[in-house]
Amino acid sequence: MKVPLTAFSGVALVSRGDETLLAEAAGYAHRGYGVENTVDTRFAIASGTKGFTALVVVGLIAEGRLTLDARARDLLGGDLPLIDDAVTVEHLLTHTSGIGDYCDEEADPPPTPSLATSADYLAALDGYPQRSAPGTEFHYNNGAFAVLGLLAERVAGRPFPDLVHERVCAPAGMADTAFLRSDALPGRTATGYLEDGRTNVFSLPVRGHGDGGSYSTAPDFRRFWPAFLDGRIVPREWVARMLRPHAPGYGLGFWLPWPGAVRLEGGDHGVSFRSTHSGGVTATLLSNDHRGGGPLLQRLDEFLTKP
Q: How many other CB atoms sit within 10 Å of the CB of residue 262?
């Protein structure tokens, strides 16, 4: 397939099994030093991280260490007192918890660059009143997945980034996926750029958590989908439950854009990400530019859905 990459900065990779249908990189990972993007460049994936969070939580459930109907309050204790006592793990996973969101995308929240540790996120999540009764409505909620990350830490007794590495990245062979510090990016990692040409270092948390902020590559997502769907991350019976609609177009941490398709996506300041698996084909786009994927995302979807 041919896809125009004019005015695009990032990577597009489309594959069917071991066959590569498209592998293109364009633009710069670092403009100041003239470092070009390559297919193996690491990019921030923003809310694409939510799928990893869901897998960590479901893995703990599959082991009998947690349940879908477990109340968040039982693990939070006196922390985050404005979260309704009836909120469950399932409510948080399906964006139906109704909790107040510390990062409400509809309200255009201010940047939160100081977030780096679990304690930072716990403090940031506090003080937001419940907005609706648990289980009554779907409302995309970043805070819910940050809370899930904290709950997973308390159940497993491990830092959340370590849980994602051990329970998702390692079994999937995703060697280039990790929670990197936005102010200390290593080599072969793209810096994000805002509309005015500045980097996004003052617009993102220092280090991500359950709701977003990990970094990955297109080849790593080529590895991720078979590992997930084959039951190498969580048992197959739980894969099926995660991909069953629990809200319109949404399962447990994954988007379900059309029958037979599953997707992770995310966007932030200078970050655009989407990876879709449908009919045995994986299409992943990552960008480090404020314009994101633009028409290229539509072209990739058209390819995935053509007869």
A: 21
Q: Where are the domains of the chain?
A: 10-305
DSSP for 151-165 reads: HHHHHHTS-HHHHHI
| Main-chain dihedrals φ then ψ at residue 268, nearest 5 degrees | -155, -175
Amino acid 291 reads R
Active site residue 214: no
The mean per-residue pLDDT over the stretch 220-245 comes to 98
> Which of 15, 47, 182, 214 is flagged as catalytic?
47
Q: Which residues contact 11 (CB under 8 A, 6 or more apart)?
A: 24, 25, 26, 37, 38, 39, 41, 43, 217, 218, 284, 285, 286, 287
Is-contact 238 58, C-beta < 8 A? yes
- Give Cβ neighbours of residue 52 (< 8 Å, ≥ 6 apart): 164, 168, 169, 214
3 state SS of 98: coil
CATH number of 10-305: 3.40.710.10
Contact 297, 38 (CB under 8 A): no
Q: Looking at residue 303, what is its pLDDT?
A: 82
State if pTM tops 0.90.
Answer: yes
pLDDT digits (tens, 9 = 90+) for 125-137: 999 999 999 999 9
In Å, how far are 63, 125, 173 from 66, measured between CA atoms? 8, 22, 26
User: If pLDDT is split at 50, 70 and 90, which confidence band does 297 have?
Assistant: confident
